[in-house]
Design goal:
The chain has 234 residues and is α/β, with parallel strands linked by helices. Helices cover 44% and strands 10% of the residues. β6 (202-204), α9 and β7 (221-222) form a beta-alpha-beta unit.
Length: 234
């Protein structure tokens, strides 16, 4: 399953050619299916001053696609062992929920159409997310996406989160497909690294993080949105 133009950002309207359709598709959640990465960044920026931390966008970006334990380690490395990480996370969760309650959470462009297309084709689908199970279930239900997936793999289900391959390996096992025959869809650097480490072909659909040379080297392609992924798989 290799595109002709491996790891490139293609001109508008031009898509890579895939030699075989995947037997299953594994989706990241935050920033890929729903716009929660940008909401989470805003929540962190609001919660920071409440616990005495001024969080820049660059610091928040370091936490994109990173599970909670990894985010805690990043904060300790940057601010020291006394950083009020748990208080920050609690405040950010409160501000994120307030945004969701206000109707700010939305599906990313093309998500519904791609999922309907895959469902019509009988292609199994899973979510592999760095979020906790309770958070993943809440977000997928709130966004009206939960019914599209036969399995949801979360940080609670594996020993190590992204960038380790555990989430994608478990998703492939639950779907009954070898990782090399699945397709991963990701928006974050750690997500791309995780899928790559699982030997799962991956397409990056950037959200807050721009593609880098490393990401292009690891990806089948970098596409602008999930509409482009749907056209590729049609």
């Amino acid at each position: 399953m290799n595109p002709v133009r491996n790891g490139t950002t293609l001109p508008h309207g031009q898509l890579p050619v895939m030699s075989a359709k995947p037997c299953a598709v594994v989706f990241d959640m935050d920033g890929l299916l729903i716009n929660t990465e940008i909401l989470a960044r805003q929540a962190l920026r609001l919660a920071g001053p409440e616990v005495g931390l001024a969080l820049s966008d660059s610091v928040c970006s370091l936490m994109i696609g990173v599970p909670l334990d990894g985010c805690r380690a990043l904060l300790i490395e940057r601010y020291g062992a006394d950083v009020p990480a748990d208080a920050l996370f609690e405040g950010a969760a409160r501000h994120l929920q307030a945004q969701i309650d206000a109707g700010a959470m939305q599906m990313q462009p093309g998500a519904a159409a791609l999922l309907a297309q895959l469902d019509a084709a009988g292609t199994p689908r899973a979510v592999a997310t760095s979020s906790s199970r309770s958070k993943a279930q809440h977000h997928l239900l709130s966004a009206g996406l939960a019914h599209w997936f036969s399995t949801v793999v979360t940080r609670d289900d594996v020993a190590q989160g992204k960038p380790w391959p555990d989430l994608y390996l478990l998703a492939a096992r639950r779907l009954g497909c070898p990782p090399t025959r699945c397709l991963a869809l990701e928006d974050s650097y750690n997500g791309v690294r995780a899928a790559s480490a699982a030997a799962m072909p991956v397409i990056m659909v950037p959200d807050l993080l721009p593609p880098t040379p490393e990401m292009r080297a690891r990806c089948l392609a970098v596409l602008p949105d999930l509409h482009a992924v749907a056209r590729l798989l049609a």
